């Protein structure tokens, strides 16, 4: 059962959806096959779970404006990670412990129930923050009853203490949270429980000035810890890293450590930090283990405080989206991300050009244009210094083989100037591209690197051009989606 206050807030949110439905859906930048908010602002994916034959994706949602604020949990469900249906609003910021936002969290299955854990955000009139880790329970996976606070802030941390991710291991429940220590370091903090209601604070397992890592940001958030291919992976979004060459170019970062987590000693010995995505818009990813044993990741196609209010969709009363679901594998100590197989269901009207060549020119091929397409380039052979792809005159992918650098450029939606994100890449073998009206997701060399970005071309421009300095040969396949 929901409180009267929560029911009222949910009704107000639905009224906002109805009020702006026509304006939102008139936007030609609305995506065709990605998850978006029905109105307002969407950010972090939450509560990813494959439960009773249905995939659930919850998300941070501000229905009343295109800025941040007291967040709701929106909710989508799918039988197959491809065809999604909006479910009733799961949580609204209604109680004393979450009145300023039902912040990010996770979902688990326990005794046949779907259980959510989330951070309750509370602020006083002076803006001072309090934080509570909270629980909500559902019998049917659709209607949730809040059970209140299960963890209050332990000593040694500021109120920037959030985003519980919960899992089960050998008869105990574990929760990892993002935190800021009183000394100003980002931390990954671990708790353990036998019953989901009473939690033991085990302390930080990783963070700035720990485990051989020096200072590494003033806050860590949106954590996820899971086993993969014989090792353990800790995903973290550190805030406060300075740009370092091609790395850390966004306002806040999203990446991971690979190592070994010792449950007995509550220790995580790990290697260096690697960024998950090289593009302009990627943050707050979360993973789930699905019915097929796959580790599936979905991220937010946005970054906090990174010109969010300047995105063109704001004039149509909505902003942001989630990435496509991606399967994770660990190869040579590095994560690889590939789009889930189920996305092939979207394919229509295949066009193929085997052994297509480009020689010191810029050219296109009939049928390769589009604004919602999947594009595969395989067996790429470049005998020359550079290859490039222009996407709808608003984004450009460039590979410089002499320098071993891959660059994604786009026209800035803030000032119209060209901006770029880059990574080192000794050799380019394949590209897998998903375009969706105003988004691009690039999977390089079968997921060795990924680039995720929003871009805003003229809606009528569907052109794609290929260029090379030298001789370029590749197999091209393209589908409408």
UniProtKB/TrEMBL annotation:
Entry-linked PROSITE patterns: GLYCOSYL_HYDROL_F32 (PS00609)
Provide the catalytic activity annotation. Hydrolysis of terminal non-reducing beta-D-fructofuranoside residues in beta-D-fructofuranosides
Q: Give the source's domain of life in one word.
A: Bacteria
Identify the main location.
Answer: cytoplasm
TM ranges are none
GO MF terms held by the record: beta-fructofuranosidase activity
Give the first-level EC class, as a single word.
hydrolase
Note the SMART domains from the entry: Glyco_32
List, for all copies, the residue spans of the domain called Glycosyl hydrolase family 32 C-terminal. 342-467
Known EC number(s)? 3.2.1.26
Per its UniProt record, what Pfam families does this chain match? Glyco_hydro_32C, Glyco_hydro_32N
| Gene Ontology biological process terms in this record | sucrose metabolic process
- How is this protein annotated for GO cellular component? cytoplasm
Q: In which pathway does it act?
A: Glycan biosynthesis; sucrose metabolism
Q: What are the protein's UniProt keywords?
A: Carbohydrate metabolism, Cytoplasm, Glycosidase, Hydrolase
Record keyword Cell membrane present: no
Q: Where found?
A: Cytoplasm
Indicate the family of this protein.
Belongs to the glycosyl hydrolase 32 family.
Q: What does this protein do?
A: Enables the bacterium to metabolize sucrose as a sole carbon source.
Q: Would you tell me the protein name for this molecule?
A: Sucrose-6-phosphate hydrolase
Q: Which organism is it from?
A: Geobacillus stearothermophilus (Bacillus stearothermophilus)
């Amino acid at each position: 059962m929901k409180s009267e206050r929560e029911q009222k807030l949910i009704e107000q949110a639905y009224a906002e959806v109805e009020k702006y439905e026509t304006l939102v859906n008139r936007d030609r930048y609305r995506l065709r096959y990605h998850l978006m908010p029905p109105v307002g602002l969407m950010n972090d994916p939450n509560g990813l779970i494959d439960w009773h034959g249905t995939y659930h994706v919850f998300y941070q949602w501000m229905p009343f404006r295109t800025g941040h604020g007291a967040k709701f949990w929106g909710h989508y469900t799918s039988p197959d990670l491809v065809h999604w249906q909006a479910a009733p609003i799961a949580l609204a910021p209604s109680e004393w412990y979450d009145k300023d936002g039902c912040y990010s969290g996770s979902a688990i299955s326990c005794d046949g129930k779907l259980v959510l854990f989330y951070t309750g955000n509370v602020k006083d009139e002076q803006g001072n923050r309090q934080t509570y880790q909270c629980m909500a329970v559902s019998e049917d996976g659709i209607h949730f009853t809040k059970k209140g606070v299960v963890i209050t802030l332990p000593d040694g941390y500021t109120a920037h203490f959030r985003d519980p991710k919960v899992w089960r291991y050998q008869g105990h429940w574990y929760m990892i949270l993002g935190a800021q220590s009183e000394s100003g370091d980002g931390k990954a903090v671990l708790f353990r429980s036998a019953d989901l209601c009473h939690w033991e604070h085990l302390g930080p397992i990783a963070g700035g000035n720990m485990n051989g890592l020096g200072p590494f940001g003033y806050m860590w958030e949106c954590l996820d810890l899971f086993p993969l291919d014989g090792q353990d992976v800790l995903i973290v979004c550190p805030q406060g890293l300075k740009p370092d060459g091609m790395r850390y170019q966004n306002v806040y970062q999203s990446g991971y450590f690979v190592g070994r987590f010792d449950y007995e000693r509550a220790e995580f010995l790990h290697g260096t930090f690697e960024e998950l995505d090289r593009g302009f818009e990627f943050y707050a990813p979360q993973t789930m283990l699905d019915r097929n044993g796959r580790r599936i990741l979905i991220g937010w196609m946005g970054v906090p405080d990174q010109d969010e209010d300047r995105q063109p969709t704001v004039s149509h009363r909505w902003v942001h989206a989630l990435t496509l679901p991606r399967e994770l594998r660990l190869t040579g100590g590095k994560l690889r991300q590939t789009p889930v197989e189920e996305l092939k269901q979207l394919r229509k009207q295949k066009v193929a050009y085997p052994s297509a060549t480009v020689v010191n020119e810029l050219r296109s091929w009939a049928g390769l244009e589009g604004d919602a397409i999947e594009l595969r380039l395989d067996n790429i052979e470049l005998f020359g210094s550079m290859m490039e792809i222009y996407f709808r005159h608003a984004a450009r992918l460039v590979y410089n083989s002499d320098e071993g650098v891959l660059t994604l450029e786009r026209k800035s939606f803030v000032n119209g100037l060209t901006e770029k994100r880059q990574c080192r890449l000794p050799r380019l073998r394949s590209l897998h591209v998903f375009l969706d009206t105003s988004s691009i997701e690039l999977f390089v060399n079968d997921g060795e690197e990924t680039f995720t970005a929003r871009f805003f071309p003229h809606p009528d421009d569907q052109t794609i051009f290929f260029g090379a300095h030298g001789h370029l040969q590749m197999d091209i396949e393209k589908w409408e989606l």
